[in-house]
Structure formats: C-alpha cells, structure tokens
C-alpha cells in the first residue's frame, strides 16, 4: 500500500510513533509518505520506500498568521494525486484531521476517494481539544474520519467524555522497537556519575503538564540522604524554572540538563530510576522506553500511565503532586536490591508486549480494512 503519514516532525511522542511506524511499514514493503513542515527527527529518507513531502508556506502581507492548515491540505491533495496514495493516516485531530477532511473533499470532486485514519495522542484532546475555541472543530474532525484510534483506554474514555463521538474509537497503544535497546553500546555511567552516584532520569518536552518542579523537589529530598545525580533530557518552556528551583534548593550542581538527545537509550541504559510525575499523560512513551532498558519507573497514576507502568511490577505510581510518596518509593527501591531487580525484570518483560512487531500489524489491519471498504477510484 501507499500510505500518507501526517505528523508533527518533532521529538514529541506522536511524532516519534508516526515516524517509527512509517519506517517499519517501509521495511515491510509499503510506501510511507511523510507530509509535514519539516523532516521528522527520526526519519532517514535514504531508507527504501520512505518519502518526505514538505509543506511549504509563503509570507503574504494579508496574513498575520500563516494559514498552515490550508497549505497542509493542498500538499495532501498534491501528494495523494501524484503518488496515488491508498490511505491517509493523520496523527492529531487538529490541525491534521481537520486539514485531511478538506483534502478529502477537494479530491472527492475529482472522483478520488481517500480514506482517513486519525490517531489521537492526547494533547489534541485533553489540552487543546477541550478548549471551547477548538472543541467544535475537534469534534467535527474526529467524526469525519473513517477510522479513529487512540493510544490508550484512558484517552479513549476522555475523548468520549469531552466530545460527542459518533463512532467507535479503537485502542492501538504506542510501541517501541526492542532491537534498539538490545544493541551493545558504551555505558555512560562514569560520565554522568563519576563518583558512583545513583542516577535518576527524566525525559520530556518540559511543558507545565510534566511537573518538572516535582522532579526537582523529589531529587532534593533524596540528596539529603543519598548520593544521586539527576539527568534532565529535553527542552521546553519550564527548563529555566526547573533550573532556578534546583539552584534555590541547593542541588543544581548535581543536575545535568542535556538538551534534546536522539539516542536516549544510551542515557537510559545507565539510569537507575525513571521519573514521570506528569499532571496528565495519555500514554507515557518515555516511561515505556525506560522500561525497555530495564529501568523501574516512578510515575503519577494519571491518564494512561497506570496502563503502562504497573504498580509494584514495573515500578510505582503515586497521586499527582505527591512528592513524598515518590521519594518513599525510590528510597525503598534503593535500599532493597531484590526489589530493584524484580522491578527491572518486570519492566523489561512488560515492555516486550509493546514491541513494534506486535503493535504495527494492528495498524496494517486497519489500513487493509478501510481500503477494502472504500469506493473504487
């Protein structure tokens, strides 16, 4: 099949999942056509069967803000026409599903029917989508899609609660490629913890919803009794606030801000505990990536996180903002070698359930089903 993939080309979970899915499909012999404003960070277009189609925009004095949705719809139409795409898979309801509906209407006039699959990832529903400014557009975009999927049962429930959805939402979870975490690589523990400190790690886009201040407070409490280092991977609007709090609490010299990192597994391999105390998390891909490296996860119990991080099996979960509970769990883990090993084994074992070879065929099945029931061009 010729598959169009529309996503954000960034380090965020939705972009990572869309890109890795496309690469997997290309290896299986499908054509994966990425339609977005920049080349996805994990995409190597030298790979056979992968194509990148840039959505370009031009400045015009009339527009205070450039109309990206219009440019995206036009690029979808052009790509579908030229490459005879069989299906369009868009990640995020807005603006991607909204733009896809417009492209579908344009092509219908020409007698071309392109089925649209929309995958909901979280922010498009729980943050942006529920804003009254966008709610009608999000509701319309979801209901106009031929098939809708979500990355967790929690997100499916949230979507049905927030919107008037008239079709069944299919849950297809996020995934990892376990082979990426099995390749032998140099251990960086001595670089990050030269004095044998324990290593805590957090990876995100540093938005307010990630609650970086909770991470700093957890770390500061641990530093009172333990030799630990904190690695903060990523970038975003909360970075400086987190740094300032670390300075205020006297632990900043023990915190490492790495910025954005592509091969995060090299850091996760030397991590003792992964922290994800988010206010809301539709799935928690970073937690799954940590688990694939055999790292116990300490997370909040919100959204889809309890579906991934099983309390007492792969790590521990706590209520949002309960810093003391998270500190208690980490201390318990550090003081009990048998428990730590049990959680490491449990984390690794559970991550295998989410291997791409188990999840990607679900999407292939959706593609085949929607194309089979589509009108012949």
Shape descriptor: elongated
**CATH top level class name of the largest domain:** Alpha Beta
Unreliable segments of 5+ consecutive residues: none
> Helix amount, in percent?
40-55%
Strand segment tally: 13
Integer count of domains:
2
> How confident overall, as mean pLDDT?
92
Continuous helix count? 15
Question: Roughly how many Å apart are the termini?
Answer: 15 Å
State the CATH architecture of the largest domain. 3-Layer(aba) Sandwich
What name does the CATH topology of the largest domain carry? Rossmann fold
Classify the secondary structure makeup into a structural class: alpha/beta
- String of helices and strands: EHEEHEHEHHEHEHEHEHEHEHEHEHHH
3D architecture notes:
42% of the residues lie in helices and 17% in strands. The protein starts with a strand and ends in a 5-residue tail after the last helix. The mean pLDDT is 92. It has two domains: 2-175 and 356-372, Glycogen Phosphorylase B (Rossmann fold, 3-Layer(aba) Sandwich); 179-354, Rossmann fold (3-Layer(aba) Sandwich). It has a seven-stranded parallel β-sheet, sandwiched between helices. The radius of gyration is 22 Å and the shape is elongated. Helix 2 (68-83) packs across helix 3 and helix 3 (93-109) crosses helix 5 (135-144). The protein has 377 residues and is α/β, with parallel strands linked by helices.
Q: Layout of SSEs?
A:
Layout: E1 2-6, H1 13-27, E2 31-36, E3 50-54, H2 68-83, E4 87-91, H3 93-109, E5 116-120, H4 123-127, H5 135-144, E6 147-150, H6 153-162, E7 169-171, H7 189-192, E8 198-204, H8 212-223, E9 228-234, H9 239-248, E10 255-259, H10 265-268, E11 273-276, H11 285-292, E12 297-300, H12 305-308, E13 315-318, H13 323-335, H14 337-351, H15 356-372
Parallel strand pairs: 1-2, 1-4, 2-3, 4-5, 5-6, 6-7, 8-9, 8-11, 9-10, 11-12, 12-13
Helix pairs in contact: 2-3, 3-5, 8-9, 8-13, 11-14
